[in-house]
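User: Teach me something about this protein's shape.
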Amino acid sequence: MDVPEDGLDDMTKLSYFHEPGVLHNLATRFALNKVYTFTGNILIAINPFQSLEDLYNASVMEKYKGRLLGDMSPHVFAIADASYRGMIDERKNISILVSGESGAGKTETTKMIMRYLAFLGGHIFVEGRRTVEQQILESNPVLEAFGNAKTVRNDNSSRFGKFVEIQFDNRGRISGAAIRTYLLERSRVCQISDPERNYHSFYHLCAAPQEEIEKYKLGNPESFHYLNQSNCYQLDGVNDAEEYLAIRRAMNVVGISEDEQNSIFRVVAAILHLGNINFSKGEETDSSVVTDEKSKFHLEMTAQLLKCDVRVLEDALCKRLMVTPEEIIQRSLDPLGAAVSRDGLAKTIYSRLFDWLVDKINIAIGQDPDSKYHIGVLDIYGFESFESNSFEQFCINYTNEKLQQHFNQHVFKMEQEEYKNEDIEWSYVDFIDNQDILDLIEKKPGGIIALLDEACMFPRSTGETFSEKLYQSFKFHKHFIKPKLMRSDFTIIHYAGEVQYQSDQFLDKNKDYVVPEHQDLLSTSRCSFIASLFPRLSEDLAKSAKFSSLGSRFKLQLQQLMDTLNSTEPHYIRCLKPNSKLRPFVFENMSVMQQLRSGGVLEAIRIKCAGYPTHKTFAEFIKRFRILAPDVLKQECDDRDACIMMLEKLALRGFRIGKTQVFLRAGQMAELDSLRLQALGSSAKIIQRQMRTNIARRQYISLRKSSIHIQSFWRGKLAGKLYEHMKRENAATKVQTVFRGYSSRNAYSKMKVIAITVQALIRATVACNEFEHRKQTKAATTIQCNWRCHRDRLHYRQLKKASILLQGKRRKKVNIAEHEKREMIRRETNEKEKLEKQVEELTLSLQMEKMARTKLEEEKAQDVERLHHSLNAMRAKVDEATALLYNEREIAQNIIQDARQLMTPVRDSVQNAEKIQILTTEVENLKVLLWRERERADDFESLYMKAQESSEEQNKKLLETQGRVDQLQVYLNRMMSSVSDQVSELKCFLCSSSSTHTSITRDHQDNDAIDLMETSSSDSDFTFPAPISTSDSFQYTDGLQLMVQDISTGEDLGLEKSETEKERAFDDFF
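Assistant: First, the predicted structure itself:
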């Protein structure tokens, strides 16, 4: 086919397929700023090295939305849209692999993909709320500032690998995301070559506002060792001050707080000051110290920013602890070792800071655990080959080898193997297979990474010994070359060319562990942010993690990445760099051709054109194109025969039928899709025709109903008018009838009024006469009532006056009796107090006697005899007291029996007083007896003093006598308790006698009322019943009986109160 002036957008359509034709097509499109070209499903993107805003605005995104791949001109949005539609329609996870050399535009291409996915699956913007897609897009500036740097080939080269997994919900909306990073180039923090730059974050901080500069004591980039190793400090078209503010805004969007931002830049400033610390030889051998005051200033600033002790920081840089079985030895480092320790600390801090940023962004964005589908975008470093290639370039090129193998498997191997499995005849196409190179690097146990880990386990291993080990192991390998003049170098023939590596620092960079002194220093920092970057490790974990291989860890991460890519449907974007000078409108044929060859693009074009680029399973083909041959599906046949019949009916040529799939030539899928669209268009027209018919019918039915409604309305109007006329006629008839009735009723009413008037006059005369008779009768009744009321009121007043006089006399008697009772209680209380004092004195005297008697030691036999006699006398007196107690009990019982026979509370009170007097006399007798006993005790004491020199045997007898005296005291106490029991029994009998008296009083209520009022007492006034003046049945005896009952009730209350006061007085006495 003829090539148009602007070139072909799909190079599989080239008639003359060779390298000059491919280069001419790409150069033609590049000259017209058409930087995108298809190679089948693979997109080739050439970096224009200029801004093309019109190529990526919102209107362009809208054009590519929902369009099939190939319908529009090639664009990165077309690949992104095809990935999104494939995920939605086929419910598969998709991955987009963006590959190419450094400077080919992979990072920008990744940004465009994420912008378009956010455009398709983004949420409606809500003010004050950060959406997931905003956070994903704003995370790019943060990661680029801390992970990108200027290299020889690219001003914004990613020095780490990034795989962004964008998650979607069932509606196709972005619901979460996760970012995974790989192998940050840590050595760039300390070492850069001219004209490269360090990471962008250092230069952005040096261009921060003046207050930030003064806060961190910063200056120009030329004043810092980690930045002045190169003469490049500024990038063309980039303002570091504006970039610093943009990073701050991006951090706010992704959810990094203001305090965390300050801590992040504090750490960056500390790394810059740390690099300016220089060391010189110390006084001791192989020791080092800080060189000058300038270095000490930077040391203090580093300690201040890291919030740790200056001396501890200096020791961590200049000294090491060696742990031996016997002791711990502190070893000083020479200046070179101290500088290496300083650089190691700087690399470790920056690496931990970058990992924290990635984790923080992932937490801020959030992952959707319910998401079932995702699109992964891989942006990883391209193939690198510099004058000096170290461990980082080795890992980068190893990654590109794995990605190239993945590309080979999906574009070449899987395509050819699928043809073989389906028994499709075609010409086999050879391609470059890099499996031997991967075996050379990662094979166990003899691969380069395995040998490097083995060398790191030996303390005395060096770069030369490691290289020598490689020479011996791979001297016959076709992809490994030993340089002739370099003893520590080795060369690997990669798929993209030869790369010579310098193994001097391979061992140190492969050891992925933190110096214990550095770990202890930073884990105890007073800054919580810095301490969180270096959490404390347990002793077992610290011992197990003492050696960790960075190469092995990176190999494991890379394998996990490949497993993720293998589980998804891949889409490839090959980025090309048109020239090595990074200039626009410059197209270098040799450079582009080398990239096409190393990327396998030419082989992909050849195999796509020579084979069958499109293949579908039978079920998928039938499901997609069954609309083109619906008659075939009605026949009873399997899917394979149905596909053959459909293709034959469509008159296609050149297709192949495999075991499970249909294989189509290039362009045939587009032809079938065109026929399918035509069939869908015809079906749509039929559907539209039916819908229009349905709509027209509905309109007709609606019009018909409306006309029927209108006719009904007008018929109703006519009927209404007829009804109104009939109604008027009926109304006139009714009016006439009513008028005639009214006239008749009016005449009747007049006659009725006259008759009623006459009747009313007659009835009024009769009523007046009756009223006069009732009035006279009522007046007579009123006079009689007033007279009876006056008579009863006068009698009531006389009775009330007599009652008040009787009550006054009775209250006077009661008050006199209460006064006498109070005097008696007062005297009894005084006597009781005196008795208690005497009892206490007697008790005290007995205790004194006991104390005196305890001091006696000896007594004569005669005194003991006398004591026995006195003891017998005391026993006799105890017997007398016991007999007296029995007599008192009999007396109390007699008192109780007498109390039961009492009739009035006055007599009861007198007898109780007599009994109390008798008890008082008996107590006095007991006091006399106790006093006599005291006198005898005094005699006994004098005798005891005389008998002090008696024998021990007599003393024992005295102790026995003392025990008997104690028994006497017990007997006395028992006598007192028995007396108190008798008193309590007496109180019980008094209560029962009071209730008996109350019942007797109620039995005599029928006696004369006046005598009862004279002999009874009441504590409260009684209420007089109101006189019933209007009652004809009033009797004098009923009112008197009511008064007597009231007085009797008051008497009962007075008796009960009197009895209660007597009991309280009796209790107080005892």
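Now, about its shape. Confidence is low (pLDDT under 50) at residues 124-128, 540-546, 993-1070. Residues 668-854 form the longest helix (187 residues). If you'd like, I can walk through any region in more detail.
User: That's plenty for now, thanks!
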